[in-house]
């Protein structure tokens, strides 16, 4: 990578799900004080930046993705002064800070929505959101057939008879991005935080902001069993072309500030081609590559995703980003530890198929980490992934908090299983998540055996997931071939992915059922498990000096 390339082209960004990272004030919920206390850990792990899930003032109907005030920190997490201190201290540790911004919807407690409710039908206050009369003789049917991502209809009726749109929970009314005040307000919010030193933003639901002006019904649904090529079908509220105008304006705002400020889009697109449209030169910088996350542990599937992503993003001059887990999906050791090789589909209820072989899932997760961190571009690590945490699949129903649980009529347990507070130290809950002698239990219960997985337990154990991530991240920083750039596939036996990166580096991942011979090399830089007799065992990966 050239030394002058902007940092975000090759950055490893660590996702801090603030509620569950570290609790500094003893209330069982993570906060800014907790993040500040763990900056030395993040520095020693070797990440370049942190993305922090929403920390703004919020009634927490969707754990902060329902924002009541974009310029204030929620008291549960701290204060604006603490956020400013965190940004400054992180920078001193050489770590950049990327908060989340939530532009698709506000909280129903946001001043604008409260004003819209108070002002009544047909008032300009309602134009900032999407209010409509209902269908049917008395307007008792929703305006169209759109569905909430969290289950049920995407419309809620008010006592005055009008309906409002919410693609997520009813507490998250969708904004009207055709309204100039909405556009101006968000540009002002970006400047508010950029001038406080943040290095960029993760953009929530970037693909959802613009709706078809006539709000037509949904197109027919594609058969999930259809394996044929995916063709883009215009959708009335997802991934509409007009959304890019908004981001061209945001790019200009970022460029007003010094120091390579950056955006990463959460954009679910039909194809790498559609995704690439978000990251053109005058648009956003990067976008999460969810195709990689959704691929099964299958060499053909993974290779196709890697090739398509690099081709499409490369064509518009953007780096790829690679991501295995986040706060919305099942943790990957639990995905990879099941027999099925079916793609795991986003926004589908999580129904694990078959028994979990966590040893297998963990072995594959170790290899996936080496694969991800060797690929060209940037990568995201979801907190706890470096500890090998599995999905917590047996949370008691009484503990579940994700709105999906209620909205689905208790048919979908939702995303709490990947959000359990992470273990830092000690043999018993809260495993150092909250200060010693804490009175409040962690907001979700931690499994009793998570002491074995704590940062303390894994530190110094060469066979641990944590030390594998540390070594990989440190090597990645030092090795000139890694990060931004391109890859060359090497000849390899069926079921084996092998590629070189520039001069002197190769990565081999064995997804076949047989041990595979390694290509010529001068040394093994890092491996997910023992390499014996020049053979790499199934489900293992290795980095080689060649
Ligand atoms: C995507 C976020 O990642 C998810 O956690 C949230 O529930 C929705 N957007 C709605 O904001």
From TrEMBL:
The record's annotation in InterPro entries points to:
GH, GH13_cat_dom, O16G_dom_2
Region annotated Disordered sits at 213-235
Q: Which UniProt keywords apply?
A: Hydrolase
Instruction: State a single Pfam family of this protein.
Output: Alpha-amylase
**Chain ranges of the Glycosyl hydrolase family 13 catalytic domain:** 15-419
Tell me which CDD domains the record gives. AmyAc_OligoGlu_TS
Under Gene Ontology molecular function, one entry of this record is: hydrolase activity
Which SMART domains does this entry report, sorted A to Z?
Aamy
Keyword check for Nucleotidyltransferase: no
By sequence similarity, the record places it as follows: Belongs to the glycosyl hydrolase 13 family.
- The name of this protein is Glycoside hydrolase family 13 protein
The organism that produces this protein has a lineage beginning with: Bacteria, Bacillati, Actinomycetota, Actinomycetes, Kitasatosporales
């Amino acid at each position: 990578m050239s030394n002058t390339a902007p940092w975000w082209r090759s950055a490893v960004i660590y996702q801090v799900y603030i509620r569950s990272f570290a609790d500094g004030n003893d209330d069982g919920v993570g906060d800014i004080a907790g993040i500040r206390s763990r900056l030395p850990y993040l520095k020693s792990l070797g990440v370049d930046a942190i993305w922090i899930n929403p920390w703004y003032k919020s009634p927490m109907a969707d754990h902060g993705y329902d924002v009541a005030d974009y310029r204030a920190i929620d008291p549960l997490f701290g204060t604006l002064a603490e956020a400013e201190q965190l940004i400054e201290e992180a920078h001193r540790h050489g770590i950049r800070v990327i908060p989340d911004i939530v532009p698709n919807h506000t909280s129903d407690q946001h001043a604008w929505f409260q004003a819209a409710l108070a002002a009544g039908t047909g008032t300009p206050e309602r134009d900032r959101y999407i209010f409509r009369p209902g269908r049917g003789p008395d307007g008792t049917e929703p305006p169209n057939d759109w569905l909430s991502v969290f289950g049920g209809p995407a419309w809620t009726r008010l006592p005055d008879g009008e309906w409002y749109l919410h693609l997520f929970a009813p507490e998250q009314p969708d904004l009207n991005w055709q309204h100039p005040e909405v556009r101006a307000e968000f540009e002002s919010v970006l400047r508010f935080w950029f001038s406080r030193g943040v290095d960029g933003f993760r953009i929530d639901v970037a693909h959802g902001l613009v709706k078809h002006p006539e709000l037509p019904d949904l197109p027919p649904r594609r058969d999930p069993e259809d394996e044929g090529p995916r063709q883009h079908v215009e959708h009335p509220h997802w991934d509409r072309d007009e959304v890019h105008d908004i981001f061209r304006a945001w790019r200009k705002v970022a460029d007003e500030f010094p120091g390579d400020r950056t955006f990463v889009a959460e954009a679910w697109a039909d194809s790498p081609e559609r995704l690439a449209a978000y990251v053109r030169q005058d648009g956003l910088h990067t976008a999460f590559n969810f195709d990689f996350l959704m691929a099964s542990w299958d060499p053909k599937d993974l290779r196709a995703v890697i090739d398509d992503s690099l081709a499409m993003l490369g064509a518009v001059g953007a780096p790829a980003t690679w991501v295995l887990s986040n706060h919305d999906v099942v943790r990957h050791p639990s995905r990879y530890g099941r027999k099925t090789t079916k793609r795991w589909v986003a926004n589908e209820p999580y129904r694990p198929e078959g028994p979990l072989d966590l040893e297998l899932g963990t072995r594959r997760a170790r290899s996936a980490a080496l694969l991800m961190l060797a690929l060209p571009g940037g990568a995201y690590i979801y907190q706890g992934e470096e500890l090998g945490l599995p999905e917590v699949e047996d949370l008691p129903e009484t503990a579940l908090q994700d709105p999906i649980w209620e909205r689905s009529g208790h048919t979908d347990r939702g995303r709490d299983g990947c959000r359990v507070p992470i273990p830092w130290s000690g043999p018993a809950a809260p495993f150092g998540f909250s200060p010693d002698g804490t009175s409040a239990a962690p907001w979700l219960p931690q499994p009793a055996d998570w002491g074995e997985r704590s940062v303390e337990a894994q530190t110094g154990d060469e066979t641990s997931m944590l030390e594998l991530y540390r070594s990989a991240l440190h090597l990645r920083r030092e090795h000139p071939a890694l990060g931004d750039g391109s890859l060359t596939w090497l000849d390899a036996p069926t079921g084996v992915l092998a590629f070189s990166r520039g001069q002197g580096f190769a990565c081999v991942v064995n997804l076949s059922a047989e041990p595979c011979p390694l290509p010529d090399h001068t040394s093994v830089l890092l491996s997910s498990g023992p390499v014996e007799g020049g053979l790499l065992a199934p489900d293992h990966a290795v980095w080689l000096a060649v």
